[in-house]
Amino acid sequence: MSSSTAESRIAMAKTVVSTIGSVAAAAMVVRSVARDYLPPEFQDYLHLGFRNFINKFSTQITMVIYEFDGFAENEIYKATELYLSARISPQIHRMKLTKRANEKDIKVAMETNEEFTDIYNGVKFKWCLVSNKAPTREHYRNDGMNRSTGSDVRMLELTFHRKHKDLALKDYLPFIINDSKTRKQEEKSVKLFTVDTMMVRSGCPTMWAPVNLDHPANFATLAMDTDVKEKVMKDLDRFIERREYYRKVGKAWKRGYLLYGPPGTGKSSLIAAMANYLNFDIYDLELTDVRSNSELRKLLVSTANRSILVVEDIDCSVELHDRVTAEPPRSTRRNQGWGYHEERKVTLSGFLNFIDGLWSSCGDERIIIFTTNRKDKLDPALLRPGRMDVHINMSYCTPCGFRLLASNYLGITEHNLFEEIEDLIVKVEITPAEVAEQLLKDSDPDIALGGLIDFFDVKYKENEEAKAKEEESANIKVEEEEKEESVAKENGKKKQIDMNETD
């Protein structure tokens, strides 16, 4: 290479660098002048025009996903946040860590202004978390928690090549949503929701208050006959797998269970075992806390999919024997400090509309459970198939249930007292809760089982006394009815005599 050629190239390079420097200096001057002298609206217009000019030559496209859609959470944002948290890599230098007191694991998420590149089907998708300041706004959460406020607008920016737009919208984003649903279901802890009466009275759309359900009950530890437990588990599995079938036959995807039997037979434990088995949240509905049919409708509509609605002791929680309209007239409303307060009244017709009418289709994969100590006291309309599909008799303790309790509490499967206890269980009505209480009294199997045998004598006497009192009450009732009937006949005869004398 000749010296003249080298000198010309050096001179050209100097010229290019000088030109770039001049342009950069001019740009800085223009930017400074614009920032100091031009109105903000005109600055935004210039910035937008410049960005649009640059974008014309770019092969990339950016999609913006805001955290909230109006006042409600954006499902795509929450799904992507969970999806990315499971794919945090060393290329991210700053991460956000969170952990609640009732959670076991530390949650990892992207911090603001961090970028992460995800590869899907060989295509690169770049994610960036952006946050802008904004006036404080109030948002409603979809997970049963209270309202929240925030002064920042957070968004996720997804950048990729323009030619992969269809792949992103029709394949990649739906994949993220489905993946996050599966992950959320696997990682979530079962929650127990109860009605928050303060939220109801304030008119807020969220009226359920949750706590973690740490109940350890499962089907392996339930003191029930093996065939009954297997029946329940098979029915639950069959229900979960039949989404398309329910849609094909035109039925709402729900299932109703009635658990009936004496107190202490394990109804609540069975509900907890079902929730743990399915990983479903429980919504515990106390009907006495509900003031009207319209309020009940709001509560039931706000329950989530994949959940269990429980109404315990339905025979005594509220009177459900009339089918008249529950809405009281204006004259029966009174001011209670929270505004107008309607008289508490939920009717049978209103209740049935929500568990079996049009409103029952406002949600998928839901289980409804009623419990009662007296099945005969319930209105037959509550018990028919389509409302309560499966009736489970929670009976007194059986030999099979006793052996399971002995295994759980004492860690034994055989003992020389088992045969005597099983004979007594057949003769004496005793609940699994009572058996468990006796087994808890001592860790020595001989002492615990001996105490249980002694308890059978006490229980037998209590049962006999209770039966005697019931018979006595029944006899007294019969005598009173006969006496009333006799008095009525005498009064009728006297009335007839008086009429004859008058004639």
TrEMBL record:
Keyword presence, DNA-binding: no
Domain of life: Eukaryota
Biological process terms in GO annotation: response to stress
Entry keywords, A to Z: ATP-binding, Hydrolase, Magnesium, Nucleotide-binding
GO molecular function: ATP binding; ATP hydrolysis activity
Cofactor: Mg(2+)
Keyword Hydrolase in record: yes
InterPro entries for this protein: AAA+_ATPase, AAA_N_dom, At3g28540-like_C, ATPase_AAA_core, ATPase_AAA_CS, Mitochondrial_chaperone_BCS1, P-loop_NTPase
Cross-referenced SUPFAM superfamilies: P-loop containing nucleoside triphosphate hydrolases (SSF52540)
Catalyses which reaction(s): ATP + H2O = ADP + phosphate + H(+)
Domain AAA+ ATPase span(s) in chain numbering: 253-398
Region (Disordered): 465-503
PANTHER family for this protein: BCS1 AAA-TYPE ATPASE
Family: Belongs to the AAA ATPase family. BCS1 subfamily.
Protein's recorded name: AAA+ ATPase domain-containing protein
